[in-house]
Amino acid sequence: MLDFGHLQRVVVLTGAGISAESGVPTFRGHRGLWRQHRPEELATPEAFARDPKLVWEWYDWRRGLIGACQPNSAHRTLVDMETRLPDFTLITQNVDGLHHLAGSQRVLELHGNIWRMRCTREGTKQEDRLTPLPEIPPRCANCGALLRPDVVWFGESLPAEVLEAAFAAAAACDLMLVIGTSAVVQPAATLPLMAKQNGTLLVEVNPQPTPLSDYVDLSLRQPAAQVLPQWWQRQMESINGSSAG
Ligand code: NAD
Fold first, then answer.
1. For the CA of 93, the nearest atom of ligand 1
2. What's the pTM value of the predicted model, to 2 decimals?
3. 23, 69, 112, 137 — which has fewest CB within 10 A?
4. What is the predicted pLDDT for the residue at 242?
5. What pLDDT was estimated at residue 49?
6. 26 Cα to the center of ligand 1, angstroms
7. Is 101 in the pocket of ligand 1 (CB under 6 A)?
8. Active site residues
9. What is the whole-number distance in angstroms between the Cα of residue 180 and the centre of ligand 1?
10. What residue's CA is closest to ligand 1, atom 17?
11. What local confidence, expressed as pLDDT, does residue 185 receive?
């Protein structure tokens, strides 16, 4: 049992696996494929420059899938953690917006959000949950230039402010939960390793082993929506038990 009395600062890093039980396909799962294209072939600036229609058709398909999904009990457990813990930071690699939909107030979205679009000329952003899109590729209502998904593609830099905040939180936390990430996509994969070097307790929630598994203090090898609520419940009971005693 972890002693939350001594674990003041908690960071959670989530990846596609936390949304798997909501029905959102992970990239590396068998349902990640679309029309025989691998995500690495479509989620790039080069693919968008070559064929914006194809890339937008893929995003339209993904938006349709995600739009039909609801947050699960793992997302909701993180909302509860945010309300109860004094210093809590949620960092996600997901673009699906399910943490917000569940009720998380502050989410550091490392890879952007699939429901936001950005004008390729003006850089202006707009949120639009319309699915399917009425026009593919969509264009900026103001200047007519192409809009692109406001997500980070392979080979692109992450938003500097968000990344800075994520690294600062990871460097200063006592406990980091790493949930549903294959821990191979950089720089997000560096966060738990850096935290570990600073003496942070690492807990991994993933039914499969990952490159991080050898370094963690506790491995919960089950689907997040099953194991996270129970695990958190046990921690809560121990907090309540120790404060009563
Ligand atoms: P990934 O697809 O590389 O890995 C998913 C991980 O989740 C795997 O290790 C898998 O074993 C684990 N997993 C599967 N089901 C799980 C469950 N029920 N509970 C807990 N873990 C489970 O995902 P990644 O590490 O996030 O990296 C891929 C990149 O793809 C990210 O950059 C992300 O932005 C993007 N992506 C996002 C979404 C989304 O927003 N939901 C979906 C697909 C891909």
1. 34
2. 0.94
3. 23
4. 59
5. 97
6. 5
7. no
8. 111
9. 6
10. 223
11. 83
* Bridge pairing between strands 112-119 and 147-151: antiparallel
Residues in the chain: 245
Q: Give the number of the atom of ligand 1 that is nearest the alpha carbon of residue 21.
A: 18
Asked whether 206 lines ligand 1 (CB < 6 A), one says yes
End-to-end CA distance of the chain: 16
Give the per-residue SS3 of the chain.
CCCCCCCCEEEEEECHHHHHHHCCCCCCCHHHCECCECHHHHCCHHHHHHCHHHHHHHHHHHHHHHHCCCCCHHHHHHHHHHHHCCEEEEEECCCCCHHHHHCCCCEEECCEEEEEEEECCCCCEEECCCCCCCCCCCECCCCCCEEEEEECCCCCCCCHHHHHHHHHHHHCCCEEEEECCCCCCCCCCHHHHHHHHCCCEEEEECCCCCCCHHHCCEEECCCHHHHHHHHHHHHHHHHHHHHHC
Q: Which two tokens stand for residue 24?
A: 């959102």
For residues 137 and 146, is the Cβ–Cβ distance under 8 A?
yes
Q: Strand 201-205 to strand 218-220: parallel, antiparallel, or no bridges (unpaired)?
A: parallel
Peptide bond into 137 cis (omega under 30): yes
Integer CA distances (angstroms), 97 to 89, 111, 113, 116, 129, in order: 16, 11, 6, 10, 11
Task: Give the residues of the chain that fall short of pLDDT 50.
Answer: 243-245
Q: Which two tokens stand for residue 176?
A: 């980091």
